[in-house]
Amino acid sequence: MTRLIKYTFLLSTAFALAACNETLEDIAPKAERQLPARIVQTMKAKGMSKSSPVTMRIFKEEGKLEVWKAKTNGRYDIIASYDICKWSGQLGPKFTEGDRQAPEGFYTVRPAQMNPKSSYYLAFNIGFPNAYDQANGRTGKHLMVHGACSSAGCYSMTDEQISEIYAFARDSFKGGQRAFQVQAFPFRMTAENMARYRNDPNYDFWKMLKEGYDYFELTKMPPKVDVCGKRYVFNRETLDGESLSPTAACPPMSQPESLLTAYRQYQSQYDTAFNAALKAQSTASKSETIAGHQEARLVADWSKRRARGEKVSRLPPNIPSPTAVAEAPEPASTPAVAATASAYTAEPASRLQNALEAAAGEAQQQSQENAAAATTETPVEGAVPNPTPRPNTSAERTASVPAPAPAAGGQGTSLRRRIQNLFSR
Q1: Which among 24, 50, 112, 212 would be 20 to 30 A from 406, CA to CA?
Q2: 301 phi and psi, to 5 degrees?
């Protein structure tokens, strides 16, 4: 009897010790951690719910990832901004697998692209290459937003940051959002920044992205994104419901007249600010940018040789950008330029309301977004951790990645309905 009591005591002690050794991950899996109370309170104050739709914006040069959520009136407002821990490569798009470039463009994230068991703490695949990338022969895979603060083509956050970012996306999916948009830009596409890079080889690509950027700034709603003629097209409808081909010429298209009018007014203000910025920024400093496919191939070859164990330079090779300038202090804007830029960036509330209210009766019915589910296979991340961030100056540099997702679109609602709801509440 005494022996039985001792055995029972030892067994209960062992169970108690095992419970003490249980980790937090066993009790509360990292992928299910809730948003901090401070964020939940801010959402309530802004008229958002935890499960309302989400969209994200990335700015390379500023090193920021922003999370925006829909309010009860259908428009989006920023709810959180994070400093990107690391991104690799230079300003400019990703061209080829192995070039270490973090993508730029409009991407769609669906539930199957979320990875709660990532070796980089938590992750989601942004959907590169999308329809635009594929139409232009751009290659690569497993391009993520993830934790662990290491990057070789991804946007890497700290574990604490990705825990919150992941929770925003997870909660929106639980609320019924079928996909959210990730907009990745080289920089904030203001008149001053565009003027700085007006001679860059990537400028035409950035001007194309800027149209989508402007529609978001104008309406505070993610733009409807399609691809035809190897180009992005935003907030447009084909006539008679004609389908689009990413590589074929764009068919005749239209968009609500009031939205087009508002955009033209917005663009007119931008043109004035851009011309003013040209006069003030002739010597403005610039970040290093990728020079195109040729440099991408050089970097990809360097990556392959490094992976094989060959002796290579510490940093990838590069072709200096035609606009590469030694780092210098940014010249102070003149009062006239500052006033012009301020007029452009200010929210044109009354003008927008008048122009966009009329869109309710003018928007043409679009086809519902293709709801084909993305592959359910969990991606295996292929990025090689890179503890050294890519330098941005030419002098430093010369010392020296799931299945494709369709082009980003809306949230499964028609353009007509999205514009109708803009000022309905």
Answers
A1: 50
A2: -65, -40
| Residue that the structure tokens 């901090």 belong to | 36
Q: In what order do the strands lie in the sheet with 123-125?
A: 86-87, 155-156, 144-146, 123-125, 114-115
Residue 154 annotated among the catalytic residues of the structure: yes
Active-site residue identified among 85, 146, 149, 228: 146
* Catalytic status, residue 228: no
CB contact set of 170 (below 8 Å; sequence gap of 6+):
31, 32, 114
Range of lowest pLDDT (57-61, 131-135, 241-245, 402-406): 402-406
Structure tokens at 285: 């400093």
* pLDDT attached to residue 324: 46
In this predicted structure, what is the pLDDT of residue 283? 67
At residue 247, the pLDDT reads 96
Kindly report which listed range (7-11, 15-19, 173-177) carries the lowest average pLDDT score: 15-19
C-alpha span between 149 and 329 (Å, rounded):
29
List all residues 6 or more positions away from 349 whose beta carbon is below 8 Å from its beta carbon.
none
Q: Which two tokens stand for residue 60?
A: 């390379």
pLDDT in tens, 236-278: 999 887 889 999 999 999 999 999 999 999 999 999 999 999 9
CA contacts within 13 A on the Cβ side of 206: 24
**Is the pLDDT reported for residue 210 higher than 50?**
yes
Of 85, 149, 154, 228, the active-site residue reads: 154
Average pLDDT over residues 297-324: 81
